[in-house]
Specification:
Blueprint (H helix, E strand, L loop, with lengths): L1 H11 L18 H23 L2 H5 L7 H10 L18 H20 L3 H19 L6 H14 L6 H24 L3 H4 L3 H8 L5 H6 L4 H16 L9 H21 L5 H8 L6 H12 L16 H30 L5 H11 L17 E9 L6 E2 L22 H9 L7 H11 L3 H4 L14 E11 L2 H7 L3 E8 L9
Antiparallel strand pairs: 1-2, 1-3, 3-4
Helix pairs in contact: 1-15, 2-5, 2-7, 2-14, 5-6, 6-7, 7-8, 8-12, 13-14
Length: about 500
């Protein structure tokens, strides 16, 4: 924190205090904000790449769950028209070393962004590397925070245009993220949201709760209902304040930041909450940042001497034109997506084809966070056997498996296998990746099993795999005091039939 405040003080000395005439979208008013945001984005990029580096081989490596070579071979066999889809650097080299190298290179470029060294090149490189990983890692990199990071990363590159248009686009992205998350809850028709009961079960059934979730789950029903209503108000109404005058924007920022901090305390949603907080910076301006520095450090008012030069000529017109074209594309595609959402009809014709192609690159996203609420937590337990009679369980690193297992804080790391396991029991049909995972266990694939906490068949692979389901609920205070357990487990029997999953 001390380093950050010192850096802000130094940076602010080189930036001119904006005048009132410059307006709410003048880039001169957001130089310090932009510089701070880019460093926070670099931190989030670093988290994303570092988290992937310890998982990527197990997810899509040669002995992983969904080997990248098989995916690319399938794409190539589809014809030359599909050869460059997905757009990824791994067409050049799809080895395990290349996968790990991409995460390491991404981490290095992230550090350069943080240090403000070769920043534009580093922003482009980090975006291209993460996009390349995303394009070949589905479903493992198909979460909303992956899309948000890609969309944010693309906009960050265009901060180099130094125009107010990009400031507007960042606010638009934040508005879209928050507003659509709220609207999707109401439009889904889920009575848990319309009846204000969603939080009655949310803390218990979310993918990876924190220890605080157990305590918040015990709040009185009226308070949980109030929290549900507050969530809808904050997600649907507060976003409109982001386009209002200065004080309204500040209020929207602080409300959003406060709510994100509450979510961080109770939920392991990885870096999406941190990235949302970072985006809130664009609701402030440089003058607000300077005032914050004064408040924290009790320093004298900083009056920088140098000002940003708004040079006329071809270069300036090119920068403005580039930003304007980006804005037109984003708003046009988002308008088409909004229309499809409202009418519940996909966009047809050539526009539909173009839109579907663009959406695959996750740079023009629609967001929906928990549009429907699960009312029960079903955990899957995987066991193996040599003879079909004696079964030994596999253990995951983070998801609940034992009644005495304490929920954990794993922020900002994202264990992608543990997260994906949460979705399996919610699907009406078998997920292809899950079946591939079971086959990987039968083969004792080293990279895939490295994603687990415990593999009971390290030496000799099992001959059979079994999947059982159990219903998990939080214990009551009385039960926890008596047993020390956080969960109650109710066995439900074998999970849906898995034909052929045996060696």
């Amino acid at each position: 924190m001390k380093y950050l405040m010192n850096w802000l003080s130094v940076q602010s000395k080189s930036i001119t205090e904006p005048t009132e005439k410059e307006g709410m979208y003048s880039f001169a008013s957001y130089q310090l904000v932009s510089a701070l945001f880019l460093r926070l984005l670099g931190v989030i990029y670093l988290i994303a790449f570092a988290s992937l580096s310890v998982q990527i081989e197990g997810l899509i490596g040669s002995t992983g769950i969904l080997p990248i070579a098989e995916e690319l071979a399938f794409q190539a066999s589809s014809g030359i028209a599909n050869y460059f889809r997905p757009l990824t650097l791994f067409w050049i080299n799809a080895s395990d070393e290349a996968l790990l190298g991409a995460t390491v290179a991404g981490s290095i470029f992230s550090i350069l962004i943080i240090l403000n060294r070769f920043q534009l090149i580093s922003l482009i490189a980090a975006f291209v590397l993460y996009l390349s990983l995303h394009q070949v890692s589905q479903p493992f990199l198909n979460f909303q925070w992956d899309g948000l990071l890609l969309e944010t990363g693309l906009l960050a590159i265009f901060l180099a245009t130094r125009t107010g248009i990009v400031i507007f686009l960042f606010r638009w992205l934040l508005f879209k993220l928050r507003f659509l998350s709220g609207i999707s809850k109401l439009s889904s028709g889920d009575p848990a949201w319309s009846g204000l009961t969603a939080l009655n079960s949310y803390f218990e059934v979310q993918p990876l709760p924190t220890p605080f979730a157990w305590y918040v789950h015990l709040f009185p029903e009226w308070l949980l209902r109030f929290g549900t209503g507050a969530t809808l108000v904050i997600e649907i109404l507060v976003p409109f304040m982001m386009f209002m005058p200065r004080k309204w924007r500040f209020a929207a920022a602080w409300i959003t930041i406060f709510w994100q901090l509450l979510i961080i305390l109770t939920s392991n949603h990885n870096w999406i909450n941190f990235l949302t907080i970072a985006l809130c910076l664009f609701l402030f301006d440089d003058r607000a940042i300077r005032n914050f520095i004064q408040w924290v450090k009790s320093v004298k008012k900083i009056r920088p001497a140098n000002s940003i030069t708004q040079a006329d000529g071809l270069y300036r017109r090119l920068r403005i034109s580039t930003a304007a074209m980006l804005a037109i594309l984003i708003l046009a595609f988002n308008a088409a997506q909004f229309w499809a959402l409202v009418t519940r009809q996909p966009v047809s014709g050539d526009l539909g084809v173009v839109l579907k192609t663009i959406e695959s690159y996750r740079t023009f996203n629609m967001y929906h966070v928990f549009p429907t609420m699960t009312t029960q937590r079903i955990e899957l337990e995987i066991s193996g056997s040599h003879d079909g009679r004696e079964w030994r369980p596999y253990r995951f690193k983070y998801k609940p498996e034992e009644p005495g297992q304490r929920p954990v804080f794993i922020l900002p790391h994202q264990p992608r296998l543990d997260w994906q396991m949460w979705f399996v029991s919610l699907q009406s049909k078998q997920l292809p990746w899950f079946e591939q995972f079971l086959y990987a266990l039968l083969e004792n694939a080293p990279a895939a099993t490295s994603l687990l906490e415990h593999n009971p068949f390290k030496d000799v692979p099992p001959g059979f795999i079994r999947v059982d389901a159990s219903r998990y609920t939080f214990t009551t205070p009385e039960q926890r005091q008596a047993t020390g357990e956080w969960w109650q487990r109710e066995p439900l029997g074998p999970f849906r039939p898995l034909p052929g999953v045996k060696r």
